[in-house]
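Dear H.,

Thanks for agreeing to be a second pair of eyes. The structure we're designing against is below in token form, covering all 107 positions.
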């Protein structure tokens, strides 16, 4: 079950759980959490607390498609900038932002 929320680690509905944690508790099936998890410490905490089985991200991957590799190598990923997807969330907009900021896509 994939749960997407803009709340990240916030507890929901007066409970001790995130929205993903509630879904995991109520359904007893594996849950993928998404939302404000581009910070590795936040994603790790969500997993460590048993609130989700997996995490997914959008902003982190848009900001730096090499995010997982960089973390594994101890490097700092390029942070997400909302202008990367302005005026629309397209590859052309992201490519234009990267060109304007001198940031190349990595292989």
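And this is the sequence the design step returned. I haven't edited it by hand at all.
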């Amino acid at each position: 079950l994939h749960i997407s929320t803009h709340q990240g680690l916030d507890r929901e509905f007066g409970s001790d759980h995130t929205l993903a944690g509630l879904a995991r508790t109520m359904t007893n099936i594996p849950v993928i959490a998404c939302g404000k998890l581009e910070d590795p410490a936040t994603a790790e905490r969500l997993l460590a607390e048993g609130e989700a089985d997996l995490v997914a991200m959008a902003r982190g991957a848009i900001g730096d498609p090499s995010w997982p590799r960089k973390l594994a190598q101890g490097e700092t990923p390029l942070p997400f900038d909302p202008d990367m997807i302005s005026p629309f969330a397209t590859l052309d907009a992201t490519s234009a932002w990267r060109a304007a900021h001198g940031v190349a896509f990595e292989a």
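Two observations from my side: Residues 91-100 form the longest helix (10 residues). The chain has a mean pLDDT of 88.

Warmly,
E.
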